[in-house]
Amino acid sequence: MPSIDEEIKELEGEIKKTQYNKATEHHIGRIKAKIAKLEKIKEERSKKGGGTGFFIRKGIYPSIGLLGPPSVGKSSILNSITNAESRVGAFDFTTLSIVPGVMEYRDMKFRILDLPGVIEGAHEGKGRGREVIAVLRNVDLIVIVLDPFKYDPSYILKELQREGIRINQKPPKMSVILKDRGGLNITKVGKSEFDLELFESISREFGIINADIIIRQSMTPDVFIDGLLGNRVYIPAIFIMNKSDTPEFEKAMDYVKSLGLDPIPLSIVKRKNIELLKERIAGKVRMIRVQLIPSNAPSDEEPLVVREGSTVEDVCKAVHTDFVEKFKFATITGRSVRFPNQRVGLEHTVQDGDKLTVFLRKG
């Protein structure tokens, strides 16, 4: 009996040898649905199996993953933009574990993660690829680093796509409401365009036979499959072409631009565009400012800068761990509440400009 990987490869081979046209698009769409279903089964089995891997806890600072082939200069970039001291070497697989550093830009802080180099076949576990991908599912931004000698990002993009990571994309505007009976009803809202018959066929391939599916945008079968699975992650990304001081740089840069990408030309040796890189990172990750107000005196402290979507608990952790352990309640004046000095708990999500006072238990 063939393994899941063998079944997936066989189905992918069938797609490659099938010429795409109007007559075959339904057949190809159903094959893609079968592949996605097999990959979901594979993912669920790997989670049950456990195993060792990298684990990155969400912190108060945004996490930025440096991703790329081995030996393109990720460690040097980390050392240039943070306080880290990552080991630097001119040979493959220098970075055998994650090396973190904190980048400061204006009044904001970002956690930069130097990840092991990714090789083709990462989704199959080659070069610790599965561990790296697992980390990337939890970062706030992916920085893909290339250089004039390893400048084709195609296999990296394919590995990310294969593992359910969608870069520089938005989640599909659709909802799926499963039912016990009533059949399958796919409804479009507005001017959304799609192949209804094909989408019905794909839904049944996933075992969805009783459901109301509402689609609010035009979409391809691939996007529809992503929406049905619901386990995709959508992460912004930027590209770097490192070693811009080398003679081979221009050719590599032209190739990457031909793919519709706009990488930042970078040279650690000449300190070129390092500040631009920091600016781009800060611009891609949304941060907010929260003013902490003491309960017994006005505050002249600078606002605390935290990730958009942070809770009162996140803010407390950024100040001191005792603030969580001794937390009693907090009051907020600002956009996240209905009235001034509203009492809230640790789970409350803060918004930009909120003024927050934390009350602690005595002892």
Name some characteristics of this structure.
11 helices; alpha/beta; 16 strands; 6-stranded mixed sheet; single chain; 22% strand; 5-stranded mixed sheet; globular; 3 domains; Ubiquitin-like (UB roll); 363 residues; Rossmann fold
Task: Explain this structure.
The chain has 363 residues and is of the alpha/beta class. The protein folds into three domains: 4-51 and 172-229, no CATH class; 63-169 and 233-284, P-loop containing nucleotide triphosphate hydrolases (Rossmann fold, 3-Layer(aba) Sandwich), CATH 3.40.50; 287-360, Beta-grasp domain (Ubiquitin-like (UB roll), Roll), CATH 3.10.20. It has helices at residues 4-17, 25-49, 74-81, 129-136, 154-162, 196-205, 221-229, 249-258, 274-284, 312-319, 322-325, and strands spanning 63-67, 99-105, 108-114, 141-146, 165-167, 174-178, 184-188, 211-215, 233-235, 237-241, 264-265, 287-292, 304-307, 327-333, 342-344, 355-360. The strands form four sheets. The chain has a six-stranded mixed β-sheet, sandwiched between helices. β14 and β15 form a beta hairpin. α1 (4-17) packs antiparallel against α2 (25-49), α2 packs parallel to α7 (221-229) and α6 packs parallel to α7 (221-229). The protein is globular, with a radius of gyration of 24 Å. Mean pLDDT is 87; it is low at 50-55.
